[in-house]
Amino acid sequence: MNKRAVKENQQRQKSNHKALLVIDVQKGLFSKSTPVYHAGVLLENIKSLILKAYEAGAPVFFIRHSNTGWLKKGTDGWQLHDELVPADVDFIIDKSHSSAFTGTNLAAELQSRGVSHLVITGLVSNGCVKATCQDALQNNYAVTLAADAHSTFHKDAADIIAEWNVKFAESGIAVKPAADISLF
Questions:
Q1: Cα–Cα distance, 93 to 154 (Å, whole number)
Q2: Residue 137 near residue 9, CB atoms below 8 Å
Q3: DSSP label of 128
Q4: Which of 32, 41, 149, 182 has the greatest count of CB atoms below 10 A from its CB?
Q5: Domains along the chain?
């Protein structure tokens, strides 16, 4: 993304209504032979962002992926991680594509709530998180990615996360540690 697009995204971030997206933090992804990188830190950072969202009155959207394998709809692996328990006011969006926008009602739900800025977390960095971030930008949302609240289960996870944090920032996404993100 060029410097103009980066500046436009930064301007959108100054005055808007935010929502938190928690992408694909499902049991099946934590049971792979290569574990989710820094799973404990990931979960703690996501939970801290959920609390910030509640305090700010920002909507929280839990996104669940389904496929024909280890995330088959209705199975235990498809369920959200046990440490993430949506409140009655939260939204659960089920998807079968990489982007949380493709084939779902996410855009309509965000629009109906006047959301213009998304804070994104979840799994996996170079998969569904990437696709959702890209689609959010294409749909003119300001985007903040929690640099320490997205991960993957690849053997080179640390390098993949670092690489994508740079690529996300270069595309105009604000990449910040969870502790530095405000949902107000």
A1: 25
A2: yes
A3: I
A4: 149
A5: 3-180 (3.40.50.850)
